[in-house]
Design a protein that fits this description.
alpha+beta, Porin, 8-stranded antiparallel beta barrel, 1 helix, 19% helix, globular
Length: 154
């Protein structure tokens, strides 16, 4: 039995209403579930952080393991200062002071440079949008190292 025009028209109306209902109710759900993009700035990196880092220095004569641990305070304006202890191939250097300069971009990535005893080391950083922690990797030639800093106070 072939459908009548009336049945076909009712079917088309039902399909159109169903699609309209899905569009009307589905679109707000999709919009509501989309997370806003993170937004960071120098002010995101503010407070006192503890950290550890380990890695290797690489030269023509071989590799040397090293490790650092310390505390760093960032001022939220692109500057900071801290104290770090280190071990190079098992030789311990007690806590020494350092200074930091940094730039945090809106996408929560950035760079930081630490100066300790006249030597400056450079890092790429990747921040949690709330600034509670960040990961870092050294970008200086001859260094293979990475670590994490975690905020302990604001």
């Amino acid at each position: 039995m072939l459908p009548t025009r009336s049945r076909v028209r009712k079917l088309h109306v039902a399909i159109a209403l169903g699609i309209g209902a899905l569009a009307a109710t589905g679109a707000p759900l999709l919009t509501a579930s989309a997370a806003p993009a993170p937004s960071c700035s120098n002010a995101t990196l503010r407070g006192t952080y503890t950290f550890s880092e380990d890695g290797w220095t690489v030269s023509g004569t071989g590799t040397t393991p090293f490790a650092f641990a310390g505390v760093q305070t960032y001022n939220g304006n692109g500057t900071g200062a801290g104290i770090v202890s280190s071990s190079f191939n098992g030789v311990i250097t007690p806590a020494t002071a350092n200074t930091a300069t940094y730039q945090v971009d809106a996408d929560c990535t950035g760079t930081v440079a630490y100066t300790n005893s006249g030597v400056t080391s450079h890092f790429d950083i990747y921040l949690d949008p709330k600034g509670d922690s960040f990961t870092f990797i050294e970008t200086d030639p001859g260094s293979v190292s990475a670590g994490v800093e975690t905020r302990v106070s604001k």
